[in-house]
């Protein structure tokens, strides 16, 4: 049975108004705005909504003073060439969003809901998506050191042309998750890979992990 591929985000940006740092406040509703060349250090965007916006060349603050996007909702938005030493957006929503050329150190995005999201050519050190719900999410030509999907519900997610160092999925529920081509040096939660698609080369690479999980001893004759 063929694996369903992620459905792409639909983004239709018209004429955008220039956005400024002072526009960003908790629970603010921001529509049709372009935020460019800003440092968002210490900005508070908790539970704010960004609808049909463009973010380009933004710095999401520093490690000790990141922008706070906890509970924020981002929809119909393009995010390009940004840098986030720490991306703090737990319990947030990403809908119909495209993120490209962006560098993320630690993505603190647990308990979130992502739907129709595409990452392209991004570099991510650690992505904490524990307890999140992901539907139609694609990581295209990305490098991810570690992704944590423990207890997440994941459907139609793929990693074409990407690399992942550590893949965690303890207690996750997977459906149509395409991890073909990935060669992680560590997988946590092998028993939770039900619903994932791998290729024949990976089957050989992961054989020792699968045997260990099933309690099977493999010894030479």
Mean residue pLDDT: 93
| CA gyration radius, whole angstroms | 18 Å
Instruction: List low-confidence stretches.
Output: none
Q: Termini, distance in Å? A: 36 Å
| String of helices and strands | EEEEEEEEEEEEEEEEEEHH
What share of residues are in beta strands? Answer: 35-45%
Helical percentage = under 10%
The DSSP helix count reads: 2
Q: Give the beta-strand count.
A: 18
Biggest pleated sheet: 12 strands, parallel
Shape: elongated
Find the structural class using helix and strand composition.
mainly beta
Keywords:
221 residues; mainly beta; 12-stranded parallel β-sheet
Give a short synopsis of this structure.
The protein has about 220 residues and is mainly beta.
Structure characterization notes:
This protein is mainly β and 221 residues long. The protein contains 2 helices and 18 strands. Strands 1, 2, 3, 4, 5, 6, 8, 10, 12, 14, 16 and 18 form a 12-stranded parallel sheet that branches. A 6-stranded parallel sheet has the order 7-9-11-13-15-17, with no helix packed on it. It is elongated, with a radius of gyration of 18 Å. The model has no long low-confidence stretch (mean pLDDT 93).
Please describe the topology of this protein.
Layout: E1 17-18, E2 29-31, E3 33-36, E4 49-51, E5 54-56, E6 73-80, E7 83-88, E8 93-100, E9 103-108, E10 113-120, E11 123-128, E12 133-140, E13 143-148, E14 153-158, E15 163-168, E16 173-178, E17 186-188, E18 196-197, H1 200-205, H2 207-214
Parallel strand pairs: 1-3, 2-4, 3-5, 4-6, 5-6, 6-8, 7-9, 8-10, 9-11, 10-12, 11-13, 12-14, 13-15, 14-16, 15-17, 16-18
């Amino acid at each position: 049975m063929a694996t369903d591929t992620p459905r792409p985000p639909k983004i239709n940006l018209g004429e955008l108004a220039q956005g400024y740092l002072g526009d960003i406040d908790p629970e603010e509703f921001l529509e049709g705005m372009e935020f460019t060349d800003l440092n968002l250090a210490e900005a508070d965007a908790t539970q704010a909504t960004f609808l049909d916006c463009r973010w380009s060349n933004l710095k999401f603050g520093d490690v000790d003073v990141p922008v706070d996007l906890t509970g924020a909702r981002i929809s119909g938005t393009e995010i390009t060439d940004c840098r986030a030493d720490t991306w703090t957006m737990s319990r947030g929503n990403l809908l119909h969003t495209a993120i490209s050329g962006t560098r993320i150190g630690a993505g603190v995005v647990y308990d979130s809901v992502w739907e129709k999201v595409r990452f392209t050519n991004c570099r991510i050190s650690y992505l904490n998506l524990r307890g999140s719900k992901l539907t139609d999410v694609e990581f295209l030509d990305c490098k991810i050191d570690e992704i944590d999907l423990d207890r997440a519900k994941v459907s139609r997610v793929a990693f074409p042309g990407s690399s992942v160092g550590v893949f965690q999925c303890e207690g996750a529920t997977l459906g149509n998750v395409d991890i073909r081509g990935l060669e992680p040096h560590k997988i946590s939660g092998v028993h939770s890979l039900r619903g994932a698609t791998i290729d024949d080369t990976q089957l050989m690479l992961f054989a020792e992990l699968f045997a260990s999980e099933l309690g099977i001893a493999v010894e030479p004759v």
